[in-house]
Design brief:
4 strands, 4-stranded antiparallel β-sheet
């Protein structure tokens, strides 16, 4: 090592610059940057996971509330149907031209397509028969029109009730409904 007292100012400056450059090369900056980047990636992943969890929790809460309303509505509907059925002796008079009336209810509700012919099933019991009308794959762009048709049909035909209903979104046509209406009628003598 040269004697610092015998060095000129320029030599001392060059020696200091060389030492600074050598020191910079020996600093392990990458060892500090890598954990910092990993920490930032973990923090971002945690924020995304918390956001996803919260939005999923909100959706689950909404679906649970919707399910509770649906179950309550079904229970209320069954109570009303039972009361109506008991008040009328359990069976209603036959309705002439029922399928034509159902088509008219569909037009009144605003359905854009005509109804397909339903599958009809008859179950007989003592002095009465249970008629079931199953409409399959009724499509319409408006879910409210489909539900209005179901509601109008039940309101306008005495004793008519919904035995089952399935609503599905259709990829291009809007909504598809499969619905089975049922009604008790007196046997004609």
């Amino acid at each position: 090592m040269p004697d610092l007292r015998s060095m000129t100012d320029d030599e001392r400056f060059e020696s200091a610059m060389a030492a600074t450059t050598f020191e910079r090369r020996n600093r392990p900056r990458h060892l500090l940057l890598l954990p910092l980047l990993l920490f930032l990636a973990a923090a971002i992943a945690i924020v995304v996971a918390l956001y996803t969890h919260e939005s999923s929790r909100i959706r689950v809460g909404q679906e649970q509330a919707r399910y509770k309303r649906l179950v309550q509505g079904v229970a209320d509907l069954r109570d009303l149907q039972g009361a109506q059925s008991q008040a009328s002796g359990g069976a209603y008079e036959p309705v002439p031209n029922l399928l034509s009336r159902m088509e008219g209810f569909a037009r009144d509700a605003g359905l854009t397509r005509s109804l397909s012919i339903p599958t009809t099933r008859v179950d007989r019991s003592e002095g009465a028969r249970r008629l079931s009308y199953t409409y399959s794959n009724i499509t319409d762009p408006s879910i409210s029109a489909l539900l209005a048709w179901v509601e109008i049909s039940c309101e306008q035909v005495p004793g008519m009730f919904v035995n089952s209903i399935t609503l599905k979104p259709a990829s291009t046509q809007g909504w598809t409904v499969d619905v089975t209406f049922a009604r008790w009628e007196r046997e004609s003598s």
